Amino acid sequence: MDISVPIGNGIFNFRSGVILIDENRVLLHKKEHDTFWALPGGRVSMFESSSETAVRELKEEIGVDVVVERLLWHTENFFPFGEKKFHEVADYYLVRLQDSHSIYRGEGEFKGVEGDEVLIYKWVNILDLPETELYPKFLRKDLRDLPEHPVFLTINQMKEFG
User: Fold this and answer.
1) Which residues pair with 90 in a beta bridge?
2) What would the pLDDT profile of 107-135 be if each residue is shown by its tens digit?
3) What is the C-alpha to C-alpha distance for residues 18 and 2, in angstroms, rounded to an integer?
4) Which of 32, 35, 37, 53 is the most buried (most CB within 10 A)?
5) The domain spanning residue 27 has which CATH number?
6) What is the number of structural domains in the chain?
7) Cα 121–chain centre separation
8) Per-residue DSSP letters for 39-88?
9) Are 97 and 20 in contact (CB under 8 A)?
């Protein structure tokens, strides 16, 4: 059971984000009909650590095995999506593939799955992130210079979207 709880007119999520870097590229994904990108990952399940979630999500969505290297960011994010307001706690992990894999050679978009939904994946040059519609927004800049130690961030996007 994923930790995603409706409370009043909002939703509380606990999520893990996965940062997979190949030279100067980072792997992003989006739902098939979304206009914006995010880091791969998903909701943490009850009694699962957030690092276990990072490993599970990439295995489920694109069939690759990853090893968690370290936690980069722990965030508390407030944002609207659709008609709902979200309060999301997320851990973002730097990972590496367990074995050499053809995923590193990809240049175009490729598909993954999340339940019944199609996910679109692509490698994006880290220098192109400022012009990429990537959320949370801090990633557009901060993925270019990864922190040496975990960083806690509070992000309030409620005012940006009215």
Assistant:
1) 15, 75
2) 778 888 887 889 999 999 999 999 999 99
3) 17
4) 53
5) 3.90.79.10
6) 1
7) 11
8) -SEEEPBTT--HHHHHHHHHHHHH---EEEEEEEEEEEEEEEETTEEEEE
9) yes
